[in-house]
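User: Show me sequence and structure for the first protein, then do the same for the second.

Assistant: Starting with the first protein.
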Amino acid sequence: MAPGPRGTCASVSAEQDTNRWKAMSVALVAGFMTLLDVSIVNVALPAIRADLDLSPGGLQWVLSGYALTFGLLLVPAGRFGDARGRRNLFIVGLALFTLASAAAGLATSALWLIIARLVQGAAAGVVNPQVSGLIQQLFKPAERGRPFGLLGATIGISTAVGPLLGGLLIQVFGAEQGWRWIFFINVPIGIAAIVLGYRWIPARRADQQDRQSLDSVGVLLLGLGVLLILLPLVQEREWQGPAKWLLLVAGLGVLGGFLAWERRYAAHGTPVIELGLFKQRSYGLGALIGLLYFAGFTTIFFIYTLYLQNGLGYSALLAGLAITPFALGSAGAAALGGRIVNRYGRPLVATGLTLVAVGLGGTVLALDLVRGTNGGWAAAFPLLIAGLGSGLVISPNQTLTLADVPVERAGSAGAVLQTGQRIGTAVGIAVVGAVFFNRLAAGNNDWSAALRMGLLVTIGLVLVALVAALADVVAARRDKTSEPVEGTLARR
């Protein structure tokens, strides 16, 4: 068919652009909803404990069980989406998440709620790799800054606004029913996203599907390794004694076996993880930065909401409001960072990490200078600075890390990145949580001292991530400097 008039071509192009942004909007809503459930439960734990008579171990599973199953499903679901198409898997995962949310809201016992949370986490692990994979599928490399910026804003806002939204729901519906609405709110949003996702997200044609084996042995080895690593971390406070860390050693051993299997399997099939991706400096260092940053980033809300509610006596709503400056800064900077990341590259991430460290240091100083109930408000400005920095880390780092990844590996590559973030989250909560609660016990419930120690460890994790970012900056500049020399030698 001959091409039509120029205006017709422009019209078709505009229509295609509209369609892909419709698909992107549904994916972002689903990503927001699943990531929101990582943090929104924090402020509801006292209400859940009172209503269902949960033990401390039960509360830990409500909070950490979600992250555990979330991390387990990310890579297999990403690989399956790459091979068989992302739309149907996205919809199945979203439907399962919606049903599990309804079940969690209807829970009448601790076991019921824990099982619903485990299913919720598994469904979130199915949905999220499809979101980053869709960005790779729908947008060319030069166009991905904006959608990855919006994804980064989604990650930042969902994590930071969770305590505020949870507190608001508890304030409106009361403690007994408010925690249930934390889960019920997902149901109408999930149903709408399922319908619109089926209409707007493009399906993969049968002739485009990868019919090779999905490497079931690799999936099992990776799942077992991640489980053995995450389990002692999420149960760190409940399982006493050092024996639990043997599971961590076993997990590392299983992952070593997984790597050996993947190298062998790659000779005749498509492995779960393309290990060659880690030879790309942008991907390897980007994944490391993500792991380290999330180890510090998510612990901020874990210990700070505990400090505000238990240490300063804030209500769930006030605790959420006190963290809002971080959310606002993160959202604004993430949207901007996505637009300018292709211009500035990894130095933008290094700048963001520096701002996070400075902002958290300012938070420690503000809380030291202003004691009592006004401390939470005194920390608002430094938290805003930290939020601005966070927005310049998450989305730009994701864009740079996945920039050179082939589209056919986008889902699994993004899933590996997110798995690292989930492991980083578990490590951070375990390490920072241990420091926080040990200092609290040693200091006769001195919440200020405990928070200070916890934030200092968090700052340390952010600074290690900054070292990794600077290493990438230096290496990139060295490559640029050597290029003309190599070209001259080649000509000679």
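Switching to the second protein now.
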Amino acid sequence: MASVQITFLGGAGTVTGSKYLVRHGGQALLVDCGLFQGYKLLRQRNWRALPVAPQDIDAALLTHAHLDHSGYLPLLAREGFAGPVFCTGGTRDLCAILLPDSGHLQEEEAAYLNRHQLSKHQPALPLYTRLDAQHSLELLQVRPMREAFEPLPGWRATFSRAGHILGAASVLLEVGGRRILFSGDLGRPDDLLMCAPDAPPAADAVLIESTYGDRSHPPGNIVDELGPPLARLAARGGVAVVPVFAVGRAQTVLHAIASLKQRGELPARLPVYLDSPMAVSATELFERHVGEHCLSHADLRAMARGTTLVHSVDESKALARLHGPRVILSASGMATGGRVLHHLLLHAGDHRNMIVLTGHQAGGTRGARIANGEKTMRILGREVEIRAEVVQLATASAHADGDQLLDWLRAMPAPPQRVYVVHGELPAADMLRQRIEHRLHWDAEVPEHGDTVTI
């Protein structure tokens, strides 16, 4: 029987760029098609040709829509890949929002570099365009959760619920007499927004994410953590600026605020604005995918009643003319760009106001600098004093922590022959590897970028 090989083309030794090429019997299938993000050294990999020609990849599977799992697809398609890309309905709908936006942002960045002659390339080019992204969406084919299908003749795949974000799935791939389980990004079993991940099926090999493989989430939940600071804010008549990620984090914060109002811990009339077109679109998707998340129709109605959706630039600018306490959610989540910069420029200098950071802030971002207590910052070309109260939430993560990852593995019907620890920075990945070996007594390893293993 021909062997099954996996080549780690991303998501190995890093928390970004997930791409796993599975080959058997002359056919090749790509699980995830992620964009490298963050450090320049990693981002440069996006510009290098893959070790396999795109036209030689027969099909692809996406575990979910976050760009570090889907954002390379427009480039792969432009370079010659024309096979089907299988995903869940939620992933398809989110990709329709995220991928064109990614292309648009890359076009904007290239135009800025050319305008200011800041690139060594003449001209600077986007990695791909909005049009490239829209064309790639035509390859997406939806398959339901928990129903096996054939991504290629003789191959079987099954999506199971992973939590994390709308549409996120783990994937069991059965090929060449082997069962390979890809965890995707696993959510928390106690998440406020998303349902708990399904128990994993039996498999010969497992690729498990390790984003938080070296830590445990603090006790408590975002509702209890967010209530006291926003109550203080409402009492003193201030403005809270909340940088949010458009998919997942924005909806979690809106639901938490609606819950606090229903409990009487925040004034029912406290105005809340969602000022991010992408987050508005993502929030509207929750109505179409009831049953894939924890929110009921009543929860969604409560969110809608208490939130003003801001669509246009003019509507965004009009928020500056308002008076009284209010909460403004706006992208981006690490304050690296987007409309949130305008709100920070207006409100960060007033001690009555508040900046609420809702998740991990990567080194070098404005969000990290605010979290670290910097008192002045350049925003949109102006020096701004940070006098607003800064609150960093510790309970808003949408990833399972190290203990929860172990619990998920422990729920497998039988030990796999090998576990490959992926999608984590090296300290987190290696810590999870050690815990798998010492606590579960299973063979585990952290593969390196470009490694090929035989299953």
